[in-house]
């Protein structure tokens, strides 16, 4: 097994863990907090609150490093373009997440007493959820070129 195969395999495993987190959050977590804000936001406060950020802050750097290592190791192969595409798209998703998704999520979930009208709160929560589903679908879709890169090595 070559170095590039090892890195791509590790990247695929971590990518799968991340995709599992995306699916879990959109099946179990997001529908609960977005159901009836601000009442449904109790899961984000208190001593036993949900701390999903611990998972996301850990998995993203690992995936980025493994994708970058895969790209470097496979630079002289035909799989370079697929790995560039996956890494570039993923970095774009991370940038959009940092600029809009995280700040908006924090605005919606951190202060249950914020002076936001209930209808606006629900509309913003639903918009966040729909856009996050699209973001998740994009990340899940990037699994195919990543798997294709392994198949071509």
Described by its quaternary structure, the protein is single chain
Count of alpha/pi helices: 5
Share of helical residues: over 70%
What is the strand content?
A: under 5%
Spans where pLDDT lies below 50 across 5 or more residues: none
Cα end-to-end separation:
10 Å
Q: Which word captures the global form?
A: elongated
Give the domain tally: 1
Q: What's the helix-strand series?
A: HHHHH
Overall strand count: 0
Mean pLDDT: 94
Structural class assignment = mainly alpha
Radius of gyration, in Å, reads: 18 Å
Question: Major sheet: size, sense and barrel closure?
Answer: none
Can you give me a brief rundown of this structure?
With 153 residues, the protein is an all-alpha fold. It has five helices and no strands. It has one domain.
Give an overview in words.
The protein has five helices and no strands. The mean pLDDT is 94. The longest helix has 31 residues, at 3-33. It has 153 residues and is an all-alpha fold.
Topology:
Layout: H1 3-33, H2 52-73, H3 80-109, H4 118-141, H5 143-152
Helix pairs in contact: 1-2, 1-4, 1-5, 2-3, 3-4, 3-5
Features:
single chain, mainly alpha, 153 residues, 76% helix, 5 helices
